[in-house]
From TrEMBL:
Family annotation (Pfam families): Ribosomal_L33
Superkingdom as given in the UniProt entry: Bacteria
GO cellular component, one term: cytosolic large ribosomal subunit
Keywords linked to the UniProt accession: Ribonucleoprotein, Ribosomal protein
Family designation: Belongs to the bacterial ribosomal protein bL33 family.
Organism name: Murinocardiopsis flavida
Statement: the UniProt record of this protein carries the keyword Magnesium: no
Classification via InterPro entries: Ribosomal_bL33, Ribosomal_bL33_CS, Ribosomal_bL33_sf, Ribosomal_zn-bd
Protein name: Large ribosomal subunit protein bL33
A GO MF term: structural constituent of ribosome
Length: 53
């Protein structure tokens, strides 16, 4: 069964160091770019991660 295009895989890049996470998002609920606060192991703290395309 093929993966839906409604939930694509997106990469979240740290605003401070460039560290990345991969996750999925629902395009119907969040059509804009995703911004989350997540743990950055390079900084050893939480920072803002933004969706990159």
């Amino acid at each position: 069964m093929a993966r839906s295009e409604l939930r694509p895989i997106v990469r979240l890049r740290s605003a401070a160091t460039g560290y990345t996470y991969a996750t999925r998002k629902n395009r119907r609920n969040t059509p804009d770019r995703l911004v989350l606060r997540k743990y950055d192991p390079v900084l050893r703290g939480h920072t803002e991660f933004r969706e990159q395309r």
